[in-house]
Design brief:
Blueprint: H1 5-24, E1 30-32, E2 35-36, H2 37-56, H3 64-88, H4 95-119, H5 123-148, H6 171-191, H7 194-202
Antiparallel strand pairs: 1-2
Helix pairs in contact: 1-2, 1-5, 2-4, 3-4, 5-6, 6-7
């Protein structure tokens, strides 16, 4: 059932919306150290995509040089992590916490990137998933605006310096998110017609 493009789009769209709602409502949903419901959903989606390639036998490596360099970087990070934890043994150095941090910073973003790189196989897939990402961004902005103006509150989005951090949790990162959000939003407006265009304009 995962071989159809529509089913893959639904799977990736569900993953995006899960991540969005977890950020909006500040849901950790931890299952174990280094593993949350968000991680589990990501790993499940990645496993489904890998299974699809195994069954269809039509896998073609894309961005091979980038992946090779990135995996080399990850391998180097893992090697230094093991050396620091098992041989040098710095005082206060936790092998488990450092390993979880390494996975969170280096491995999970790679899995997320590969999931969407190989999950969206056509231009239509990419455009539809992009629109879901934009909808998720609109929901996050609405949550931040409601909190900023005291209209409603689903979370506390202001940091200690009284700066709006949004569901992202950090003001500068939220500013970067808004800046990255605008170009695809303009593209969605340009490609839409009628009420759909009006909806993107309002967004």
């Amino acid at each position: 059932w995962l071989e159809g493009p529509v089913n893959m789009r639904l799977l990736l769209s569900a993953l995006i919306l899960l991540l969005v709602f977890c950020h909006i409502f500040s849901l950790d949903l931890s299952l174990a150290p280094g593993l949350s419901v968000k991680n589990a959903a990501l790993y499940l989606a990645a496993s489904f995509i890998a299974f699809r390639f195994v069954v269809s036998r039509n896998f073609e490596m894309e961005m091979g040089k980038f992946l090779a360099f990135y995996l080399g970087f990850v391998a180097y990070a893992i090697a230094t992590w093991l050396v620091a934890g098992l041989f040098i043994q710095y005082k206060g150095y936790s092998l488990l916490k450092s390993g979880i941090g390494l996975k969170t910073i280096l491995v999970d973003p790679l899995i997320f990137f590969l999931t969407f790189l190989f999950g969206a196989r056509t231009s239509e897939d990419a455009l539809k998933i992009l629109k879901v990402i934009l909808i998720g961004g609109v929901l996050m902005h609405l949550a931040a605006l409601g909190d900023a103006f005291g209209i409603y509150s689903v979370g506390s989005y202001v940091n200690e310096d009284e700066r709006m951090a949004g569901p992202i949790g950090e003001p500068n990162s939220y500013g970067d998110f808004i800046a990255m959000f605008l170009p695809p939003l303009c593209a969605a407006m340009a490609m839409s017609r009628g009420l759909a265009r009006l909806g993107w304009v309002l967004a």
